[in-house]
Amino acid sequence: MICLTGDIHHASLRTNDQKYIKPGDSEINISRRFLGLLEKHGVKATFYVTGKSFKEEWNGLKPIAASPLVEIGGHTYNGIPLGALSRLRYRLIGRVPPSHSPTYGSRFSQERDIQKTIDAVEERTGRKIVSWRSHGYIHDKYTYSILVQKGIRLISDEISSSKTSPEKTKEGLISHPINTIPDHDHLYHAHRDEEFVKKAKAAGYGTDAFGCDSYSAERWAGLVRERIIAIEERGGLVTILMHPLCMYLADGFKAAEELLKFISGYKTIWAREITEACFSGQKML
Predict the structure, then answer these.
(1) Hey, is 118 helix, strand or coil?
(2) Domain extents in the chain
(3) Which of 139, 141, 166, 225 qualifies as a FRET site for 133, CA 20 to 30 Å off?
(4) pLDDT range class, residue 81, cuts 50, 70, 90
């Protein structure tokens, strides 16, 4: 089984990738075009969406949230942007700044952020979210217990090249790691060219469980296919991260569509379906 996931951000977050969008377009508009590919190939997806997207860009987001192929999960409220002073500090020391703040804040600020995200989604869709991935995978000793208290049941913020199945955290969440090579930090796109990757490596930034190398969209998709086959052969659950914006900026969705064709040959599920699909007969929560 495959759980295809993607992250979607509000335009006012002004991420590095968003700077490469053509005038008049937006990340959410591009995500709607990605939705068209999901519909074409009959593939389910869980989209982790920032709460501000529902406040600021609901008209564009509504078709995505209403799709019978889509589950909406939480992705923090405002994307935890790195402050201007912190970005200046990174530039002054000659290091590549991360795309997010290094911390999620105090327990109180996390509770407020998580609740604001949950409320923003429910206000627009009428549905409570149960799945979560913080922007930048950020979490600390408070995050998981807060998520459980707020009604979240599933988390996907770990990158693992070895895990093939979901597992239960001590707080009671079901964690399903991203166990195929993620796109954003391993895909040449937007500002992420060979020179950028070279500087990031030199600065010790951008390494995860799959290393620090980046690839063309075609090669990246090939690596994901190889992992799908290997995990399926072991009877595990594949969790894929494909940002609609990354895949569009890389090659205009060419590799994404080929990969979706391949994925359509397998059973796809939402994150919220993992409990039943993977732990049938076991009381996990």
Answers:
(1) helix
(2) 2-278
(3) 225
(4) low
> In 10 A of CB 154, how many CB atoms?
26
Instruction: Look at residue 242 and give its three-state secondary structure.
Output: coil
Entry pTM: 0.91
Structure letter (DSSP) for residue 100: S
- Give which of 118, 137, 139 is closest to 129, Cα–Cα: 118
Q: Which of 52-56, 83-87, 260-264 has the lowest mean pLDDT?
A: 83-87
- Rounded to whole angstroms, how far apart are CA atoms 46 and 226? 22
Least confident of 100-114, 150-164, 177-191: 100-114
CA torsion, ordered 51, 55, 60, 65, to nearest 10 deg: 50
How many residues in the chain? 285
Contact between 161 and 222 (Cβ < 8 Å) = no
Domain 2-278: CATH superfamily is Glycoside hydrolase/deacetylase (3.20.20.370)
